[in-house]
């Protein structure tokens, strides 16, 4: 038995998370950031595509507003299908990519939403 000084002993060192726990947290946070980003993208696109000077009842008076509305609804439908019907990432790298991308993209999308509104 060897003697070690008391200052070199650690009282309670935190145990690192197991690899499976890290991956589970990464999957949850990556998926949540993906969902939040895509929902914000739909809201921003819908807000931008709405007519500026008219109501939806008089949209057919101005062809430019009608085209913008139809294109916006098409983009919202496409992003919505990506949200609900596309495949989630297959491997851990995909979840890590959504995690890193979401950390940057979600605050930027919130700023854009505030600026557009």
Could you describe the 3D structure shown?
It contains 3 helices and no strands. The protein has 117 residues and is mainly alpha-helical. The protein has one domain (19-116). The N and C termini lie far apart (70 Å).
Give the low-pLDDT segments: none
Biggest beta sheet attributes:
none
How many helical stretches? Answer: 3
List the domain count as a whole number. Answer: 1
* Class derived from helix and strand content: mainly alpha
Computed CA radius of gyration, to the nearest angstrom: 24 Å
| Span between termini | 70 Å
Quaternary assembly: single chain
Instruction: Name the overall outline.
Output: elongated
- The averaged pLDDT comes out at 82
Tell me how many strands there are.
Answer: 0
Relative strand content: under 5%
The percent range for helix content is 55-70%
Secondary-structure element pattern, one letter each? HHH
Offer a quick outline of the entry.
With 117 residues, this protein is mostly helical. The chain has helices at residues 19-49, 63-84, 92-116.
Key structural traits:
mainly alpha; elongated; 117 residues
Helix and strand arrangement:
Layout: H1 19-49, H2 63-84, H3 92-116
């Amino acid at each position: 038995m060897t003697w070690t000084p008391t200052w070199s002993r650690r009282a309670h060192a935190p145990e690192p998370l197991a690899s499976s726990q890290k991956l589970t947290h990464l999957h949850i946070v990556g998926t949540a950031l993906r969902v939040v980003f895509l929902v914000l993208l739909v809201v921003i696109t819908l807000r931008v595509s709405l007519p500026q000077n008219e109501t939806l009842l008089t949209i057919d008076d101005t062809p430019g507003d009608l085209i913008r509305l139809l294109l916006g609804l098409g983009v919202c439908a496409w992003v919505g299908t990506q949200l609900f019907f596309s495949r989630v990432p297959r491997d851990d790298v995909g979840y890590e990519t959504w995690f890193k991308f979401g950390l940057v993209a979600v605050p930027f999308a919130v700023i854009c939403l505030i600026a557009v509104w």
